[in-house]
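Folding Query — how this chain folds
Tokens — whole-number codes for backbone shape
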Amino acid sequence: MRNWLLPIMLLLSLSLSGCGYNTLQSTDEQIKASWSEVLNQYQRRADLVPNLVNVVKGYAAHEKDVLTQVTEARARVGSIQATPELINDEQAFAKFQQAQAQMSSALSRLLAVSESYPQLKADGVFRDLQAQLEGTENRITVARNRYIKAVQEYNVTVRSFPGNLTAMMFGYKTKPNFSVENEKEISTAPKVDFGAAPAAR
């Protein structure tokens, strides 16, 4: 009996590695790691918002609509439970994307306000926060692209033969990804200068 045990175990391990099981495991872990980094960068952005709002409020208190929109967008982002399960729920993932897109849009409007306030643009704290925000937006783009690639690799394994059989056997399903339409919208970092005509020389 022992003489047969080793070959059987070897055969099982070879069949599991050849059927995509190990690839499913490694790509699933890569998705989790990539998603954690996406969340980390989005949280970093959300953490910058209160300080940015306060600085703008100091110079442009009557821009209440814009300030309110940013505050509400941040609240919507914060209300979404960004648990690891979120990446397995297409509807929850879509809501997360929408909330982050609204945050990007609100931040763009907030930064556009600075064009009307030269003193605000010249404020050192505002410039520092602006630079941090731009850097964070770039890191969000990088983190999100890594996540997109990880999901793509995983989904190909789940859908391709023989990995699809293994995926069905162990209950692995495709994971939602950032959509192309949404990707275009949220991959653009908030701009500082929105259509302000250059001064004539």
Remarks:
- Residues 21-59 form the longest helix (39 residues).
